[in-house]
Amino acid sequence: MTEHSLWRFSRALHRAINERQFSEIEPLIDEDVDWTIHGPVEFFHCFGARRGRSAVMEVIRQIAERVRVHRFDREAIMLGPDQASSMLHYSLTALDTNKPVRVRLAHFARFKEGRLSSIRIMIDCCELVEQAVYPPHMRMVAVSA
Amino acid sequence: MSEELNRQRVLNLLATFYAGDVEGALARCTDDVEFVSPAPVDVLPHLGAHRGKAEMRAMWQTVHQRYKEMRHEVIELVAEGDKVAALLRLFFRKRANDRVVQFDLAVFYTLRDGRIARIHEVIDTFDLVEQVLERDLSSLLTNKPPEPT
Question: What CA–CA distance (Å, rounded) separates A72 from B107?
Answer without folding.
Answer: 19
